[in-house]
Amino acid sequence: MSRLLRLAGASLVLTALPALAQNPTPRPFTIDDALGVRTARIEDVSKDGHWLALSVHVRRDGLGVDASRYGDPTYVAPQPGELELIDATSGRTRAILPGKVDARGAAFSKDGSKLAFLLRKGDDYTLDVDDVASNRVRTVALATTKAVASNSPLVWAPDGKSVLVALRPNGWAAGARAAFLHITEGEIVVQNASEPFLAWDSVRNVNNRQIPAVVNLADGAVHELGGEVDMRAPQFTADGSHIVFATSVPKKTSYDNRSGTASGVYRVDVASGKIDTLLKPVDRRLSAKWNEDGSAFAYEDRGNVFVRYVNEDSARNLTARYRGPATRGDTARTSYAIVAWRPDGGALLVSTRDGWHLLDPRTGAISTAYAFESDTAARPTRTFESWSKDGRSLFVATSAKDHWARGLERYDLESKQATPLASDANVYASWHVSGDGSRFVFERSDGDRPNEVYAAGENFSGVHALTSLNPQLAGVALTHSELVSYLDVDGKKLYGVLYYPYGYQAGKKYPLVAEVYETFFDNGYNENMNLLAAQGWFVFHPSVDLHIGYPGEAWVKGVTDGINSLEERGLVDGTKLGVEGQSYGGYAANLLIEQTDRFKAAVNISGKVDIISFLGDSPRIGTRNYSAAENGQDRLGATLWQAPMKYIQHSAIFYADRITTPLLMLTGRDDWNVPDTNEREMYYALRRLGKEAVWVQYAHAGHGAGRAGTPDEFQDHWSRIFGWFRTHFDKATAAAATTTSSR
User: Fold this and answer.
1) What is the rounded distance in angstroms from the CA atom of residue 321 to the CA atom of residue 365?
2) N or C: at which end does the chain have fewer Cβ atoms within 10 angstroms?
3) What is the CATH number of the domain that holds 708?
4) CA 412 – CA 390 distance, rounded (Å)
5) Domain that holds residue 631
6) What's the mean pLDDT in 616-644?
């Protein structure tokens, strides 16, 4: 259980000062420290903001996942943790269950008097209910032979007497397991292109087999609602007589992530089980958003917003008449997206690139609610969090784009004025606003330490911590982060996050390790950064400007100029530079060192090196690799057959002869995302070319190599990376000394 903090605000600072005074020289952060870090997840907050359900997890407990069973519908990675109930007004904390448990889907009843959750027991789940007032937990004995689905929803009926869950058909587990074993261990496995699904997609779809049922909490009676229906985002209507939901039914394997799935909207009568179709399934991914009482839903389709009331015959397009070009000479049509229904259901908040607007769901009348600044590059990032109860105000999370100023504001829709409730350099997450807007629960970090959970009262008064998750880090030096800006080769302004080395002394130059991926801006506790900075090195998250069709050059343009800016400040020893990355970042590290020899050492963690073989190398994730290359993260913008040279140019394996940087490659044998065989290609190539390369495979690890393996593999993973960089930085020191002495 997280230790209760009984003092808040300035008192918290005062209680921490003596401990720091007794330990004026904190020790460096270690691998064991990383494994012991505790993180909290807010599972749910009661509607009045009074009660908070929290799960607390230790980093070490997240290791040891059986990655070989990725894609097995019967396997769910364990998530042991402490399950707690916190009174957000007083800070009192109690364990809902003793010790560490694997609980999922925790949800408060409408009045906040009960908390329901699914508790894992072996391969099965039970439905448990905690009575908040009496501190008593009971398991509801379900009157059925069917098992509760591991991915079951858990939705309270308005009267708090029953909940909606999903059950598995009898025999589901045996059939699902057999399907997985056949495709992984079958002696003869046939795959036929005329079938609608890839074989792995067929196995994955088994998870969609669910039977929705309403459980009476008093006696465990189970009322099944028809046959197998995979309900998406179900909710009860205000009177509890119906459940409204959407479906998203796969029809065929899709390569564009847009088609191949039929989306529909339905309403089921709880008493009779009769299902009414409100939106016939269409071959597009649509997401319905219901108003609070379940009388109407809205959805987006191709830039338009549609609304249907259940007592009407069809949905109405409310935005077609407003979709002209935003400005004169602009050929792009205005596109609308749904943000949220107003609490009374009398308006929809919708967004365009210019701001948020209020849309009348009955008449279609529209008015600007929150006009955004015209300069999209400079205007803050805004995220809707909640309405005020009276619908007159919005609570909005904000973040500046050129400095660390993050927090929450209240925006008055009548005066069009924003009032900052919190705006500072802290990192905020998981905002929860009570129904009446008088209480707030959220996570916060100073930017360097792990998040803690906080609560605040009306107008954000009386901010106080509800957790103290990592007191063991009081005497440990965590890295300090700094936001930096620089220009890339093309003159584009980019931002990066710099992490200072352990024992930093102004005026001294230090080695630097760049961890590459895409764009970085926000800080916050980071395991990788702390472990590398503890070695006495600067660590850098540089951003890059990626362009469709030509992504490969972005890293050499952005990463090298970012490092140049730090050298110009006198912080970094340019003779001791390293680069590393994981997954897409490992791929980027390989592309980077084929274009420059500035780095003394590089590490590729679970990153592909051959984008061509990678297209079909990860069968368990279906067509993801094709779509990623063609229109996703890889940004090639074309198929292999349309632009074969782009695939060659963005596969480091074809330019292995240009690599002079010593390369360490770390993989997991059970990596379902980037198979170890892809990195093995680079090891074989570099060995053939007489280059310095080491390839390490972790037997029990998945994507992320040792970081996604066992605790022993985690230790080896990091120790090996430290040794790799240190060895080559030391060689640079020795080479510099030899050069100096020979003059």
Assistant:
1) 10
2) C
3) 3.40.50.1820
4) 11
5) 479-741
6) 94
